[in-house]
């Protein structure tokens, strides 16, 4: 059998065979905001080592103390430096400035961008399109030495932070250039009961994923709900 024949006969990798990420340190930039706090709380509740970052170390430490479960607080640069995976959950208007200031600390890190560029007017939420195409693509441009992915866009901060909610029944769309990196992020999402990470393409497809949040906000307002997403037949 030739090497080519052997390669052709090799079984395809099971797309749900995901790595063990339980020992990784997860940093959350913007961890004092609603989305960041919610993600930090959910992951720490499953035993993940979580560090939340803020411009103020004191503020981060205070928020970490409120969350419990061994969550740590640190200034943003220290949080980025000490983490294996870094979730970016900052407001859109501070996205570029923050990431541009952390290029050294985030070099070589797996970065998960969950920022949604949105505008609001009297008609409600609407999507903005960054010059780079999406928040995730802006992150990739600002962090050339990092491995940038996109995920966790469509989660309700209310549900994430509610200790009475045992399961978050939703799928997380994960985008990135490296399948190993997206597998890692999918595995991280799967740490949260009820949640599933689903590969959804490369970063060039991140804009429509980020934009969909405007539709979910409209749904939530109309139905007084906390809508999420499920991908069928996957």
UniProtKB/TrEMBL annotation:
Pfam families: F420_oxidored
Signal peptide: none
InterPro entries attached to this UniProt entry: NAD(P)-bd_dom_sf, NpdG, P5C_Rdtase_cat_N, STEAP_metalloreductase
This protein's record includes keyword Oxidoreductase: yes
Keyword list, A-Z: Oxidoreductase
Any one GO molecular-function label of the UniProt entry: ferric-chelate reductase (NADPH) activity
Record GO biological process: copper ion import; NADPH regeneration
The keyword Oxidoreductase is assigned to this record: yes
NCBIfam families from the UniProt entry: npdG (TIGR01915)
Name of the protein this chain belongs to: NADPH-dependent F420 reductase
Organism in which the protein naturally occurs: Streptomyces tsukubensis
Source organism phylogeny: Bacteria, Bacillati, Actinomycetota, Actinomycetes, Kitasatosporales
């Amino acid at each position: 059998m030739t090497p080519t024949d052997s390669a052709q006969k090799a079984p395809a990798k099971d797309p749900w065979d995901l790595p063990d990420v339980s020992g990784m340190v997860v940093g959350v930039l913007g961890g004092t905001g609603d989305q960041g706090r919610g993600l930090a709380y959910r992951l720490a509740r499953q035993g993940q080592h979580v560090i939340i970052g803020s411009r103020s170390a004191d503020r981060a430490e205070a928020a970490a103390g409120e969350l419990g479960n061994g969550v740590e607080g640190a200034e943003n640069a220290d949080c980025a430096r000490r983490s294996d995976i870094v979730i970016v959950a900052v407001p859109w208007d501070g996205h570029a400035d923050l990431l541009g200031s952390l290029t050294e600390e985030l070099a070589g890190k797996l970065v998960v961008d969950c920022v949604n560029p949105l505008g609001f007017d009297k008609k409600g939420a609407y999507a903005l399109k960054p010059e780079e195409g999406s928040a995730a693509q802006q992150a990739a441009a600002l962090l050339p030495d990092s491995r940038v992915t996109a995920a966790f866009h469509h989660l309700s901060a209310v549900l994430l932070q509610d200790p009475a909610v045992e399961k978050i029944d939703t799928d997380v769309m994960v985008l990135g250039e490296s399948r190993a990196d997206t597998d890692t992020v999918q595995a991280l999402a799967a740490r949260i009961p009820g949640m599933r990470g689903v590969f959804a393409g490369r970063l060039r497809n991140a804009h429509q994923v980020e934009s969909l949040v405007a539709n979910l906000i409209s749904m939530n307002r109309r139905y007084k709900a906390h809508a999420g997403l499920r991908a069928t037949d996957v």
